[in-house]
Write a structure and sequence with these properties.
Shape: globular
Mean pLDDT: 89
Structural class: alpha+beta
CATH superfamily of the largest domain: Gcn5-related N-acetyltransferase (GNAT)
CATH class of the largest domain: Alpha Beta
Oligomer: single chain
CATH architecture of the largest domain: 3-Layer(aba) Sandwich
Strand content: 25-35%
Radius of gyration: 22 Å
CATH topology of the largest domain: Aminopeptidase
Low-confidence stretches: none
Order of helices and strands: EHHEEEEHEHEEHEHHEEEHEEEHHH
Number of helices: 11
Length: 376
């Protein structure tokens, strides 16, 4: 086991990391290009990696890509890319490698010589490393993560009617009728050329933020680190031929868009918004449905992954929800001497039903604090 730290660690691991991610089928959001964009934006974190190899120069058998920051004297350790990733990974190419990585993670946390917290979010349910890790930690738990919706394409699908409901089909017919009645010049276009995508990014960003503000909320890309990450991750993947942008225009005006990641056999919808000026024409539904139709027709893809791009109650369609889990843990020093059975008792709905690992960990520590006060 070896621990690597520093801003160049992803490039230092380089092709070995890429090969491990390839053989373990890591999603695009857990790979080097995505995580490099995240590190470039969220610079307050120190990159760290716990690695497992067979021999000093052997292939990379397992890796935990992490980051850390000081939080009021406590070392906050999290999965690299946290908060911007609906799929994390603790990659291991075998059961033996998973066991070695779990042991290495415990050794790394013990070496910190300070109070620490750990949160790794959106791992696959029943993750091999996560299971072994919580068994070895004095205070460590897995809690349910957010389910990730997708559409699995069955071979027999011949028409879109087999995927989308009657209500949506009616909404689309009504929208097209209105467009014809009002004589709108509508054009739908799909773009994969990185230079052309670069010319769209400012317009897409404006539509993204304006839509969020129109419904009375801060946009997820209002803050500069998040905005930088959003723009950079699209640009980097576009340069690799891994982005497709769908745009719907009425005349020259952008009415709606969808940005998708082309990830092997998965077509992943990263982002989508519409201009509320055109709401009566359902532009968001039109471009989402067109995106689904194109992905179905493209023989490369076996599924469309909605990621976190659309609220579950607003999905065009979904026939599968992938279960995930978070790992949350802390050093024994932060528990105030509570016995393990007492710690397990505080894992109530306030902890287990949190949408992110950070909130679950915060809820756990709050419940621990309340339990300590009650027992005082």
């Amino acid at each position: 086991m070896e621990v690597i730290s520093g801003p160049s660690l992803l490039d230092d691991l380089g092709a070995d990391l890429d090969e491990l991610h390839e053989v373990t089928a890591a999603p695009i959001t857990a790979r080097r290009t995505w995580l490099s964009a995240w590190l470039g934006a969220f610079t307050e974190y120190t990159p760290r990696a716990v690695t497992v190899r067979e021999g000093r120069h052997g292939p990379l058998d397992a890796v935990a890509l992490l980051c850390s920051a000081d939080a009021d004297g406590i070392i906050d350790v999290a999965g690299m890319g946290h908060g911007r990733n609906d799929r994390g990974r603790l990659s291991a190419r075998s059961v033996e490698a998973a066991d070695a990585l779990a042991a290495g993670l415990v050794d790394f946390l013990d070496s910190l010589n300070a109070g620490w917290t750990l949160r790794v979010e959106q791992l696959p349910a029943d993750d091999a490393v996560a299971e072994r890790l919580v068994e070895r930690l004095e205070v460590g738990f897995t809690v349910p993560g957010g389910p990730v919706p997708r559409i699995e394409f069955a071979e027999e699908i011949g028409h879109m009617e087999e995927l989308i409901g009657r209500g949506l089909r009616k909404q689309l017919r009504r929208a097209r009728s209105r467009m014809e009645t009002e004589g709108l010049d509508a054009s739908l276009h799909f773009e994969v050329d990185p230079e052309r995508i670069a010319t769209l990014i400012d317009e897409i960003e404006h539509t993204h933020r304006a839509r969020d503000h129109a419904v009375g909320r801060r946009s997820d890309i209002d803050a500069e680190p998040a905005r930088q990450f959003w723009r950079d991750v699209i640009g980097r993947h576009a340069a690799r031929g891994e982005v497709e942008v769908a745009t719907l225009r009425f005349g020259s005006e952008l009415a709606a868009y969808v940005v998708s990641l082309l990830d092997g056999t998965s077509y992943r919808v990263l982002d989508g918004r519409f201009d509320t000026t055109w709401s009566r024409f359902s532009p968001g539904r039109i471009v989402e449905t067109a995106t689904l139709e194109k992905a179905v027709a493209d023989g490369r893809f076996s599924n469309l992954d909605w990621m976190n791009s659309v609220a579950s109650e607003k999905l065009v369609a979904a026939n599968y929800f992938e279960a995930t889990e978070h790992v949350i843990a802390c050093s024994r020093s932060l528990t105030g001497g509570l016995a393990l059975r007492e710690l397990e008792a505080v894992l109530d709905e306030d902890v287990e039903n949190q949408p992110t690992a950070k909130r679950a960990l915060t809820a756990l520590l709050a419940r621990v604090g309340a339990e300590r006060e009650q027992n005082a």
